[in-house]
Amino acid sequence: MKLFDVYPLYDVTPVSANGLVVTDEKGQEYLDLYGGHAVISIGHSHPHYTRRLKEQLNQIGFYSNAVQNPLQEQLANKLGMLSGCEDYNLFLCNSGAEANENALKVASFKTQKSKVIAFKNGFHGRTSAAVAATDNQKINAPINKQQKVSFLPLNNLAAFQKEIQKGDVCAVILEAIQGVGGLDEPTTDFYRSVAVLCKAWKVILIADEVQSGFGRSGTFFAFQQHGILPDIISIAKGMGNGFPVGGILIHKHIKASHGMLGTTFGGNHLACAATLAVLEVLEQENLVENAANLGAYFIEKATDIPQVKKIKGRGLMLGLEFDFEVAELRKKLIYEHHIFTGGAKNKKVLRILPALTIQKTQLDLFFNTLKTALR
Ligand SMILES: Cc1ncc(COP(=O)(O)O)c(C=O)c1O
């Protein structure tokens, strides 16, 4: 049997990793500034994380959601405390797409409506309602196109007002910093007005924090930098540091009922142990603060590179925009300089999404290398 060939692959075969360093089968080390699509939050193979997962595996790795699992409550408590989102309840699932799928479903149950407002260049995953709310027709099959979604330009309040007042909208889904799209952001004024209008029209506001959450933006959630209160927050990626886990935080004003949502694997013992380990390391090593500080350092260093036309993002969710497409630059960085970086839908943006444990010396190395690569 062969693999279903859907991924264009770089010719690199990682066999081990530690912190921000990934090693391939020939022993070549790479500086990982991409974390496998923003997934590695506390660094590869963090000792606390591997210990906790091994201990959990030796005890019990999985049982379904038909029995008590106190790890889920521990996780909800710790997450509520560290994020400041104590007025929310937690539902656990397995990926970012699944988180958004569940978020949209809850919104539709609650409002009994079905139209979604999403934004141009937004990305919310590849499954049913999540992909339908993703502004990329190429990854939407005819079956996905049955969903009712209006794509609006970011930061155009008049267009938003016109759409929401039609009265048929169940949810607005928004990334506080667009990941895949290329690091564009709603302004604080726009995000706040969206929140006010959602409340007025009884529409569920979903903050997609799958990529920007868990400290990456320099605050626990990126929406917190705009002073708004979403109804649902979706999470995944950095949450498990590589263990597949996702979830939604649902504000207490939305009531649960048995059978409303469900999953076989979601919230299993290993997934909870992985997420608890991530939260413990974020807290013990002050990594949210490190993301804010190192993000500021990155921006300072990037200002010295004349070829950079725009510095985008916050914390350690960053992008450098050039006036040329970055595909060749990324190849050069990987094959000649052994640094992993990311691309975006905006082909001129180089994405930088390192583990939140990154140090100044690693950013210095990146910028020195970038200067050489750009010569
Ligand atoms: C903002 C956002 N939402 C949702 C997703 C989908 O997550 P997953 O690939 O885990 O399904 C992504 C993935 O890149 C994302 O960036």
Which descriptors would you attach to this protein?
Aspartate Aminotransferase, domain 1; Aspartate Aminotransferase, domain 2; 11 helices; binds pyridoxal-5'-phosphate; 14 strands; globular; alpha/beta; 7-stranded mixed β-sheet; 375 residues; 4-stranded mixed β-sheet
Q: Report the span from N to C terminus.
A: 45 Å
- Helix-strand pattern: EEEHHHEHEHEHEHEEEHHEEHEEH
Tell me which oligomeric state these chains represent: single chain
Q: What is the CATH homology-level superfamily of the largest domain?
A: Type I PLP-dependent aspartate aminotransferase-like (Major domain)
CATH class of the largest domain: Alpha Beta
Quote the CATH topology of the largest domain.
Answer: Aspartate Aminotransferase, domain 2
Compute the number of structural domains: 2
Topology of this structure?
Blueprint: E1 14-18, E2 21-24, E3 29-32, H1 35-38, H2 47-59, H3 70-83, E4 88-93, H4 96-111, E5 115-119, H5 128-132, E6 149-152, H6 157-164, E7 169-174, H7 188-200, E8 204-208, E9 232-235, E10 246-251, H8 269-284, H9 287-302, E11 310-314, E12 317-321, H10 327-335, E13 339-340, E14 349-352, H11 360-374
Parallel strand pairs: 3-13, 5-6, 5-7, 7-8, 8-9
Antiparallel strand pairs: 1-2, 2-3, 4-10, 9-10, 11-12, 12-14
Helix pairs in contact: 2-8, 3-8, 6-7, 9-11
The chain binds pyridoxal-5'-phosphate.
